[in-house]
Design goal:
It is built from eight helices and nine strands. It is an alpha/beta fold. It binds adenine (ADE).
Length: about 240
């Protein structure tokens, strides 16, 4: 999968060189390229923002650098992914990012992320982007971050780990929280007794059918307690 990220803080994405995603990049499974939006400015101050039409607090990102950045990146289609990319703008005003979103996007050969800052990006940029690819505005959750970078880091990690070959043991992807709408069951390791706290005896029984049933109950119970919205199908 090829992923391009445009940001005024490309250094934010340094940690993507670590751990499983870093290894996947080294192995050629993931081709992640970060770009500084200011590369597509032409004035001495490398200006990316201006005051909002109609007044109001804060600054808005100018359309011109975004237009040039997206034109260049969208036209640089890798051989294995000649189709139009999915162009994602993280935004608290977007659709909610869920495990289902991550699964959908993990099937795409080509993603472009555009990280907004300040009060957002000039609205016309989204309409222009829609001529270059399939645009999605996506929110990490119902809270406001200072910019899209942290949201994009989270999305790339959630998407990247679903790509075949990134996580060493694919079975570990099947049983985790949100894969089938439930939270994960509790996990324990040795020692069986620690500071007076015991591992649930059923896990030491060797009875795999009983263990599976217990884990399922734990998942439902936890979900009912912590995330009743998931059971109600609200999300
Ligand atoms: N940018 C600012 N807040 C955000 C959020 N909650 N999700 C995605 N991008 C954002």
């Amino acid at each position: 999968m090829r992923i391009d990220v445009v940001s005024i803080f490309p250094e934010y994405f340094g940690p993507l060189e670590m751990s499983l995603l870093g290894k996947a990049r080294g192995a050629g499974i993931l081709d992640i390229r970060t770009h500084d939006l200011r590369h597509w400015t032409h004035d001495r101050h490398r200006t990316v923002d201006d005051t909002p039409y109609g007044g109001g607090a804060g600054m808005v990102m100018k359309p011109e650098p975004w237009g040039e950045a997206l034109d260049e990146l969208a036209s640089d289609a890798p051989e294995h992914a000649p189709a139009a990319p999915v162009i994602i703008f993280p935004s608290p005003a977007g659709e909610l990012f869920t495990q289902a979103t991550a699964r959908e996007l993990a099937r795409e050969p080509r993603l472009i992320f555009g990280c907004g800052r300040y009060e957002g990006i000039d609205e016309r940029v989204f309409a222009h982007a829609a001529t270059l690819g399939r645009v999605r505005l996506i929110s990490l959750g119902d809270y406001v971050l200072n910019g899209g970078e942290v949201a994009v880091m989270a999305m790339i990690e959630a998407i990247g780990r679903l790509i075949p070959g990134v996580v060493g043991n694919p079975a570990s992807l099947v049983e985790e929280s949100h894969e089938d709408g439930l939270l994960e069951y509790p996990s324990y390791t040795k020692p069986a007794s620690w500071r007076g706290r015991e591992v649930p005896p059923i896990l030491l029984s060797g009875n795999h059918a009983a263990i599976d049933a217990w884990r399922r109950e734990q998942r439902v119970e936890r979900t009912r307690e912590r995330r009743p919205d998931l059971l109600a199908g609200d999300r």
